[in-house]
Amino acid sequence: MGDLTSLADSIRQDDFLQPIGVTEKLELVLGKTSSLAVHQYLLGILKTMPNPLVQPLFDGPVDIIGDVHGEIDALLSVMHHLGYDDDGTHSDHRRLVFVGDLTDRGPDSPAVVHLVQSLVKTGRAQCVLGNHDLNILLGHEKHDNHWFFDKNSSLDGSDEPTPAVLADDNIRQRVLDFFGSLPLVLERDGLRVVHACWDDAMVEMARRADDVKSLHDEHVRILNARHRDSQLDKIDQGLEHQNLNPVKVLASGKERRVETPFESSGKLRYEERVPWWEDYTGHPRCVFGHYSNYRGETSLSSRAICVDFAVAKRWQERKQPSFDGTFRGCLAAVRFPENCVVFDNGDIEPFERIE
Question: Above pLDDT 90, what percent of the chain?
Fold first, then answer.
């Protein structure tokens, strides 16, 4: 058993840090021994190892896909325009990266999760956790994740349910297992990926953790204790929960108080999102999602590029009497090292290379 332990330690230090799936990790070490018993032991080790919340991003050419939000047809379309088969293989050995928010609002969240999970499992894709994914992982029922809780619901408050494939027990467990395995950050020299906000201090906190729920809940407890004797009102307490919890910052961004409340996502909001990317000066280019801008509303020339082109709003477009099947909201991918954006209708838009 001593030899097995030494071998397992070497895997933990080296092979496990590779950004690939369990099967591929096992293949890396098969050459070290020919014993079937050892193979089984190593597979057990790999399956039970914690996943660090900051992981290495794939080397080589990558295509980073924005928030999918249950739009399975758009996902398959953009994959095909990028040159991928349905199983994620590419003739040029490219690989996919997802910025999170795989689910909610679109018609088939289970299909999207199933596809992305299979791509990650085979080492053909990576994915970071988004705020919609986090809500599901934490068991927080929201107005737009009704599908996960097997409930028909209308996103606009009307009597007509918004079309969505509902989850059963098997789907729910598979989704929870997958979301619980995802990192918050992917990084390599010159390029980094996060769902909502890059913040150096919050990334360092995540770097020292391997369980997103534990990290989230730990900061909730700390802040709740801090607020017991606090003079802060509920809004400012909520802002501290948002801006001082590393999981919340990385997955849903920083917020600030507004003078006039407004309605968003079915509730009255007293906070607005902070456009952190306007002040981002990090040397590595950062690709993120979350902020749902239509094409042409966001700059592609900065060091921080938002790849969320509002595919999440297609459910609203489908309800318009004038809808003719042409969507304004898009799904897109940022290609590196080509420095261009490929949209799900096949359009290609180049952007400036930054050294």
Answer: 75
